[in-house]
Amino acid sequence: MGINASSNKPADDEEPEHVGVNEDGAPSPPLEADEDQRSPRAEEQGPFSEVPSPTPPPLERSPSDSVVHVDVREPEAPKDSGSSSLATKKCAFGLLFVIAVAVGVGAFLLIGMSDSSRGRGEPTIPGESPAGNGTTKPRNETTAAGGNAGTADADGSWGGFTGIGDVEWPGFPDTGADWNEDDLNAMLPDASLVAWQSLKAPAAAAGIKIGSIYNDYRIWGSGANAVEVASYEDVLTANFHVITPENACKPSAIYQTRTPDFRDCDRVIDWAEANGVEVRFHVSAWGDWNPDWMKALPAEEKQDEFSRYMREMLTHYKDRSGTIKYWDVLNEAVCDNVFLTPSKQNCAPGEGRPEDLGLLKGAEAESNWYPEIPNYFDLSFQIAREVLGPDSMLVYNDYGFESTEDPADPEKHQRVYDYVKAALDRGVPIDAVGFQLHIANIHGAQGIAGSIFFSDYMAGLKEQLAKFAALGIEVHITEIDVGCSFPTLPCTPSWARLDPTVRGRAQGAVYAAALEACLDVEGCTIYQMWGSTDKYSWRAGAWDPDEGDGEAADDGANSMYNQHAHIFDESLQPKTAAYSILGTLLARAA
Known about the structure:
The chain is of the alpha/beta class. It is 32% helix and 12% strand. The protein has helices at residues 86-115, 181-187, 200-205, 216-220, 226-239, 251-254, 263-274, 292-295, 299-317, 376-388, 412-425, 447-453, 457-469, 493-497, 500-519, 576-589, and strands spanning 2-4, 9-11, 20-21, 27-28, 150-151, 193-194, 209-214, 242-245, 278-286, 324-331, 394-398, 432-435, 438-440, 474-483, 524-529. It has an eight-stranded parallel barrel with strand order 7-8-9-10-11-12-14-15, surrounded by six helices. It has a two-stranded antiparallel sheet with strand order 1-2. Helix 9 (299-317) runs parallel beside helix 10 and helix 13 runs parallel beside helix 15 (500-519). The longest helix is centred in the first third of the chain and has 30 residues, at 86-115.
């Protein structure tokens, strides 16, 4: 994330291109981002739109103690019918992309225009039921723990859903009609009611910590009143062991000038400490999304300045180790080679030290520090260990490598593994690797595109987690969210036409499959999400900063770019995805 020093807002940067596959099976073209297109989050998928960060008024809490039951059922997972090699998938991925770009874009525009007659005032949103179809019960009461009642089988299984990665979904006709209750009952198995409960105790019983983020600038700049902020925070304290400050602890927030301003980061950590929530500090070093003054440093000054600011920042927080349990020391250093996406093809084998194996992002990827600081990767962890001490948990965090079966960048899983292994072999003090996992329903092998290109993605996730754990380090899922498409691409009209109950199950299946992969690997100790609620979300839509933070002119909450990627809805009620996670944890703990 970049920060505008004069306004204390996240600053604008260019949005990287992405390759996606739409729900009808045709690949979508890379998103050509210009100066007016901005993502609301400065992670690997894109930077922030400008969001002010006013100080909210004192909080007034008023808990609720009522319970409501919601009938939620998960689909059976059919047997895998076989998979093709990753190389074959990549070739097919490319061929289908070349053939379908013009057809896909034209069809999307044509269907989108025809959809305009349906009106934007009556959308269907994942986790909610369109008026009158009778597929879900109303959500008008909450539990004291922040949520409704839900469903799970009495024996601890989750509606017949096993969470394995080869889930396939029937092809729904693109008619725009909602599925009625009889249709759903015919295709979804029954489940009996169970009251919603906090995720923390089931996660602990299953041997894992569960976490999310604190949406600092996003909620502070939203105009939320004290009661709304308190309700949001109650969801966090009730359900999560660990939170990550979304932006407030990044160098671009703290170091808008050479003189640090720790107040916003302190504010989040103070809140976590007061509420007994652990913190993942994110992030002390990043080659990208740094403040302008860092970007402008002459090459000969970079190493001294890098060492100075890292030591200063970590020294400020080292005495908060009772709350800060995990330190994302370095973020997204290994290079990309995303298929047909030039902005994500940044490997430079000729740059840097021989021991870096040509695997780090260099100057062509706008890396702030490498190769001018040749030992940038090693130095980050050496400084962190020196300042924070031997008991600190030092994490390398990255994206795009999470599965051994990912046709978008089919070799990054090996690049990250090779680099981390080599770093460990030369004594770099890495204690854990963070798997970001910003994914979509197709990564659960759903739909035509998912069944063709991502049928083995979840099996590959489990394999990759196990490979890193075998190095003697922990593995953490650090930023999972599950949208209807890749983060900068819109949902398709066919996805929007699906009954919201079906969409909810599709999303829940992916969350649960990733959780099961983590639970199956002994060294996977944390399952953490990049957002808890669709109300405050980097995947909420409008990429134009002039339209606000996820609020498009035509109602960002219902925009086709709003992916509703989290497990609580905009009213802070648990969606089917939350029940899928709960059910998976209960089944594992039983």
